Amino acid sequence: MFFPASTPPVLSPSQHHGSMEDSFSKHKKELTRKHREECISIIEGIFGDGSSTHKDFIAINFFALEGWSLAELFKVRCVVAAPYVVPYSAPASFERQFRRELPLLYKYLQEAPAGKVGWKDVNHWMWPLFTEEWGSWRSHDLKLSSCPFTDPVTGLPTWNYRPPSPMLLYGFSKEIVECPAAYWPSRVRVCGFWFLPIDRLFSCNKCLEGSALASTELKAKNGLCLAHTRLQYFLSTSGQHPPPIFISLSSIGSMGFMTNPWAFLRVLGHVLDITSYRFILLSAGYEPLNDVIQLCAQESSSCSEQTPCNNDDGVFLFSGRFLSLPGSSISYNWLFPRCAAAIHHGGSGSTAAALQAGIPQVICPFMLDQFYWADRMFWLGVGAEPLKREHLVPDTNDSCGSSIKEGAKMLAKAINFALSSQVKERALQLAITLSTEEDGVAQAVKNLTEELGGGEIW
To answer: 446 vs 103, 296, 440, CA distance in Å?
Structure first.
């Protein structure tokens, strides 16, 4: 069962309109409180009557650590599933401070038998659970011990009971990510990338309906409904032009990293001025960017021919060499094989889709694991050297246009590198390897099935 929480687990400053830092802090604290209350309510509604079995489990990712403590509260197995490497690491002083303040618990974890929760689990991903932020919630709201694996009354480690090390399913490939078994917990399982089957690629309802009726061959060939006629036309003209280059920064705009959408659009436009490329931009519904694109369309000489930016059919700019799609209903796994390259922010999903499609990548990372993916794609030879943020999304729109020209120059250079024969060949080779040697979803299901065959829970 899937029960979505209406409150977000994380909050960016741009999602709060207050200008004062303490105002944002208060808003974040209140939102965190509501989110955790909602999580408790959801899990209580499922397991509150005590009817859980050894085959029940709660699956969490690294941004949903509430699930770990709730699994402990309701004595349900907890499984971690993440399509990305751990996006955070413990502070350098964490182990030293832990050993000094909790010497018995440190000993308990260091001496853990095989298959039981130990220090490797804590060091790899569990360490935030031992911070005050989670400890106060555990003790005040859940009536658990403030520190996991300790008695709520004495505060001592639960020497008489050692819970099993939780299974951690990684949805990426060993061909792409280095997996140091000597340092990772023994219960980590690297499955391969989790790709959706072709009949689940579309978030547009009409595309979904058409996909359900079409043959597999037709789905792969076309797969779009009439609401996307401009996109289909743009792609169909690849016979007269090279395939377009895909661009999307996903939620980077709504996270507050794109402060000047007009400068971003000017960078892309200038690249088109100095190259022969064509672009498909997916704005992911970021309204400030959509507004700028709409304004640009209205100011163009053929504005009467432009399609409004508030529908999924898109709008043409820059003499028809730029197609902007305002929403996010087009599947990357469907679109990427029809593109020459992908310019994106380095999210795990975008990276995996480009790897599956066998197309080169140009990545501009902004936060968390995006820097890892950007460096890794360059190191593997399937992408250009990571772009700097100020080159793709300048904060200023200077009158002389120097920052725009510099950004366009660097972006064009990165695209040229990515489209070199060596990079394209390497991208295709990796795509073949991933498609023939791995089935990440099947492997994850197999691992879960084996896990649920046992009878031990929390």
So the answer is: 38, 51, 10
Cα angle 369, 374, 376; round to 5? 95
Compute CA distances 170 → 76, 226, 370, whole Å: 21, 37, 16
- Domains of the chain in sequence order: 52-193+441-452 (no CATH), 202-437 (3.40.50.2000)
Q: What is the enclosing helix (H) or strand (E) of 325?
A: strand 322-325
Note whether 158 and 151 are within 8 A (CB): yes
Instruction: Report the chain (458 residues): mean pLDDT per 10 consecutive residues.
Output: 68 53 76 91 87 83 94 93 90 96 97 95 96 93 95 94 94 93 91 82 62 52 66 78 92 87 94 95 88 84 46 80 82 90 96 97 95 97 96 80 91 97 97 92 93 64
Given this model, what pLDDT does residue 306 score?
A: 45
Contact 118, 107 (CB under 8 A): no
Backbone phi, psi, residue 430, to 5°: -65, -40
Question: At residue 6, what are phi and psi to the nearest 5 degrees?
Answer: -80, -20
Whole-angstrom CA distances from 113 to 98, 160, 183, 394 are 20, 13, 16, 53
Amino acid letter for position 136: S
- Name the percent of the chain in helix, strand, coil, to the closest 5: 50, 10, 45
Q: DSSP labels for 206-256? A: HHHHHHHHS-HHHHHH----GGGHHHHHHHHGGGTSPPPEEEE-GGGTTTT
Residue 304 is predicted with a pLDDT of 45
Tell me how far apart the alpha carbons of residues 256 and 22 are, in angstroms, rounded to a whole number.
18
Any idea which residue has 């072709």 for tokens?
198
CA distance from start to end of the chain: 20
Collapsing DSSP to helix, strand or coil, 4 comes out as coil
**Cβ-count burial of 15 within 10 angstroms (0-12 exposed, 13-18 middle, 19+ buried)?**
middle
Of 66, 57, 62, 58, residue with least CA distance to 35: 66
Asked whether 407 and 390 are in contact (CB, 8 A), the reply is yes
Q: Which residues on adjacent β-strands are paired with residue 116?
A: 164
